[in-house]
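Form P-L/3: holo structure prediction, ligand magnesium ion.
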Amino acid sequence: MNSHVSRKIIHVDMDCFYAAIEIRDDPALAEKPVAVGGSPNERGVLCTCNYIARKFGVRSAMATAYALKLCPDLIVLPVTMHKYKAAAKIIHDIFREYTDLVEPLSLDEAYLDVSSSTLHQGSATLIAKEIREKIWKTLHLTASAGVAPNKFLAKIASGWKKPNGLFVIRPTDIENFIKDLPVKKIHGVGKVTAEKLHARGLYTCLDLQKLSRIDLTDHFGKFGSQLYDQCRGIDHRKVEPNRMRKSLSVERTFNKDIAITQETIHIMKDLYDQLMKRLNGIAHNRQIKNQYIKVKFSNFKQATLERATHEVNFSQYMQLLFEISKRENIQIRLIGIGVHFICDEKKKNFIQHKLF
Ligand SMILES: [Mg+2]
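OUTPUT (holo model):
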C-alpha cells in the first residue's frame, strides 16, 4: 500500500476501566474515591482509580500505601480480573463489527484501522461515535476515542477529551496541533529521553523540528529517525492484530547506571507487575514459550538470556538477572524482562513442511 494514502485510525481507551466496572456494579461507590489494586502491605500498587481519587493526586501504578496517604478515604478494591476480561471481550466484539484490524494494547485500550470500512460512508469520526455509544448501551461504561491518520496521533487524541470524550485530528490539523505538543508525549520518549531533550532546550515538537534527521540519529540512533517523523505528526506503524505478536516485554532505563544488589529486587518487582498486567491484558489467550531478560551494561554492550517455560515466574527472572550480570560484572543502564509466545503460524508451516 502506498504510504502516502491517508489512513483512518481510531484509538479507543476505556475510562478508568477496572474502577468503572466496580462502580457500575456497586452504585454506592459512585460519589467516592475508588481504586482497584493490591493491598497497602506487600508493596501493592494500584491498577487504576476513578476521577474523584485523581483529584487527590492518586494515580495508576502508584503504591497503594502512598495513595492512602494522599487520600485516606480511598476505597481500594481487589482486582476481579474475570469481570474485566468479560467486559473486554464484549468491547472487542464491538470493535470487530467495524474492522478486523484491531490491535489491543491492554484489556481496555485498542487501535482500530478503519481505512477500508464502508460504514458511515467511511467516516472514522462517525464510527468512533457509534462505538462509544454501543459500549455505553451494552456495558454502561464510558470510553474515550481519538481519530487521526496514524497511531501516534490517535492515541494522543483519545486522551485529549478524557473522560467520555471524542477528539479528531484531521490531516489538515496536524501541523497546527503538533507544534505545541510536549516532546514527552511522543511515542517511545520515556523519562530519560525527555530529560536529554530538555537539557538541550527542546520542549515541544516545534523545537524538535529544528533538528535534522542526521542530527537526531547521531544522538538517538534508529529512534532518532522516528523522532524526526513523529515531531511532524508522521507515524508509519501499522495496526497489527494481536495474533501477530511474537513477544511482549517491559523495560526500564536508569537515570544513573546501577549495580545489582538486594535493592534490585524492588526494580524487578515493579517490572514484573507491569509485565503481568500487560500479559493479562493483551495476551491472556497466548501460550508462552520462554521468559527472557535483557540488560544493557554501562559499556553499552547488550545481552539477553532466556529460559523455556510455559508460565512466567518471578524468581526465575531474578535468577536470569544474576546469571546475566556476571557476564560483564559492571554496572547496568537498562533492564528489560519479557516473554516469547508460541506462534501458531510457525507451527502450521512446520506441519506442512513435514507432510510434503
Ligand atoms: Mg484506559
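COMMENT: The chain has 14 helices and twelve strands.
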